[in-house]
Amino acid sequence: MLDYRVFTFMKVCETLNFTQAAKELHITQPAVTKHIKALETEYQTKLFTFSGKQCQITQSGKELLDLLTTMNTDIQHFKTQLKQDLQPLNFGATLTIGEYVLTDSLVDILANHPNFQVKMLVDNTETLLKAIDNGQIDFALIEGFFSKEKYDFLPYRTEPFIAVASPDSPLASGSYSLEDLLAYPIIVREQGSGTREMLEITLKEANLTISDFRKITEIGSLNTICELVQKNLGISFVYQSVVQKEISAGKLKKIALDIPAMSHDFTFIWRKNSHFKYHYQDVFKLFF
Known about the structure:
- The chain has helices at residues 4-15, 18-25, 29-43, 59-83, 95-100, 103-112, 125-133, 178-181, 194-204, 222-230, 240-248, 277-284, and strands at 48-51, 54-57, 87-93, 116-122, 139-142, 151-165, 175-176, 186-188, 216-218, 236-239, 253-254, 256-257, 262-271.
- The chain is an alpha/beta fold.
- Strands 3, 4, 5, 6, 10, 11 and 13 form a 7-stranded mixed sheet that branches. It has a two-stranded antiparallel ribbon with strand order 1-2.
């Protein structure tokens, strides 16, 4: 178990505010200050600096945070193992991967590996990264971008990223530029999702943003997005696996764009320098 002062330090890193950290930890602000000073004395380095009332974490503080976050995640994994007779498989997947890619792998794991106790969290990339950091899950399969300084990873698969429209849309035939699409309503995922982030990067390369579209609708459900696009209420950008069935059935059309084909890696990630690195590498093989 990590020292209680460590959790105070991690909370201050999260809030960058001693008063807020004290409030969330249900302790006094002087206690927070005392804990941080004790750690700075122990490690012989400054962990935070102040510019007026603005708190900033130092480089040493960032390095210590990364180390302690990985340690805490490993401890949570170890404690979960001790509590269960079956081997825990606590992981996360982004919406695209969890709902449209992993089904066959989960069928195989549940049918052929009865020693695993499976618990899968489906959420956006941002939330899953936080869940890894706080020990809620051990690893994740994500479509979004992440810090390679904080997480070890293995490439899972490369997935085409496409624009889609209703068969009734004028965009269902012909070839178009990204600028041509701005005249149409667009339906997008929420902030923090890998699909949204990929779209933003694609548009940025053309000096465009989502706000350039005539009308923007934000929906957290891929199924709902597909339904709305089928009804010709907007266009969308998604990974091809999300809409492959609808395209094959003629319910959606891939918009032909006059730019190079877009794709992005789906990635299997866990905390960098984890004690369970080789275990996660073995688990990775189950998803093929």
